[in-house]
């Protein structure tokens, strides 16, 4: 009995530790954004909740940089990335999982290999390609490298592989062609995975900082993450404004996830094929 209680104490202690590690910095950043001039952000010991709460930091951030303009640019880049990943990874995943063609194993191996290569090592070649296409300083150029993720292709391939072949064979007997089997038989079974791909693509494109920083040199096409970096350059002495900027960038991700979480968890629950 004593050993069982000790095990529970250790489990709860680990949960609290992981909570502090994962949520602590986010909570600190959130409360810092609302701290006013009367709050000592360097106090020892530090305190979390503001004594002088204010929205002035957010107002100042909106006044200093065109947040809405950058917000719109990020939405465009994220929308391009989501469309490319959902369409591209779904078609590629279906082809790799269900179709028979020469060299399929080589293609799968190349996709796995692409996941092992650090993205930073490809930045120079990506920049040269995008520049040669005349897409430097464009939102399409910012979205192009993340247009179809290898991870998302593998996710869709596994999702299509889990569908029993008997369903497609029955549809084939009824006269359905490849596209009819794809849209009417297979696609409805992988909606949950498509939602996961959508969330991954949106969050990845929205949070991307390094590539847009490299490819976008014109202030008018800055994404939100790159544009908010100007707060750091101008107000490095006031961490409250920087914290307000990060909270502004975080809000759309939270809203996006809240909208799609119902479909995400529903897709996970209904992931099994029903007889």
TrEMBL record:
Stored Gene3D superfamilies? MetI-like
Identification of the protein by name:
ABC transporter permease
Presence of keyword Transmembrane? yes
Question: What is its membrane topology?
Answer: Multi-pass membrane protein
List membrane-spanning regions: 12-30, 70-94, 106-130, 142-161, 182-203, 241-260
Q: Which Pfam families match?
A: BPD_transp_1
**CDD domains linked:** TM_PBP2 (cd06261)
Residue span(s) of domain ABC transmembrane type-1: 71-260
Predominant subcellular localization, coarse grouping:
membrane
Keyword check for Transport: yes
Family of this protein: Belongs to the binding-protein-dependent transport system permease family.
UniProt entry keywords in alphabetical sequence: Cell membrane, Membrane, Transmembrane, Transmembrane helix, Transport
Output the Gene Ontology cellular-component terms.
plasma membrane
**Record InterPro entries:** MetI-like, MetI-like_sf
**GO BP term, pick one:** transmembrane transport
The compartments listed are:
Cell membrane
């Amino acid at each position: 009995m004593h050993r069982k209680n000790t095990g529970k104490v250790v489990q709860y202690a680990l949960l609290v530790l992981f909570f502090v590690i994962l949520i602590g910095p986010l909570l600190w950043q959130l409360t810092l954004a609302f701290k006013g001039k009367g709050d000592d952000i360097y106090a020892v010991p530090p305190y979390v909740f503001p004594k002088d709460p204010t929205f002035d930091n957010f107002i100042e951030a909106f006044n200093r940089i065109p947040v809405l303009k950058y917000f719109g640019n990020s939405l465009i880049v994220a929308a391009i990335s989501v469309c490319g990943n959902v369409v591209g990874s779904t078609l590629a995943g279906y082809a790799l999982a269900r179709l028979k063609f020469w060299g399929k194993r080589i293609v799968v191996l190349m996709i796995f290999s692409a996941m092992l290569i650090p993205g930073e090592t490809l930045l120079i070649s990506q920049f040269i390609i995008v520049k040669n296409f005349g897409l430097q300083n464009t939102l399409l150029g910012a979205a192009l490298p993340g247009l179809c993720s290898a991870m998302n292709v593998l996710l869709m391939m596994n999702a299509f592989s889990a569908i029993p072949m008997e369903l497609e064979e029955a549809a084939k007997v009824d006269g359905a062609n490849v596209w009819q089997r794809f849209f009417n038989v297979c696609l409805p079974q992988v909606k949950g995975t498509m939602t996961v791909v959508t969330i991954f693509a949106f969050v990845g494109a929205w949070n991307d900082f390094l590539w847009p920083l490299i490819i976008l040199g014109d202030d008018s096409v800055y994404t939100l993450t790159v544009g908010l970096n100007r707060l750091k350059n101008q107000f490095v002495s006031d961490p409250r404004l920087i914290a307000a900027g990060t909270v502004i960038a975080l809000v759309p991700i939270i809203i996006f996830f809240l909208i799609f979480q119902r479909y995400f968890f529903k897709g996970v629950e209904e992931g099994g094929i029903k007889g």
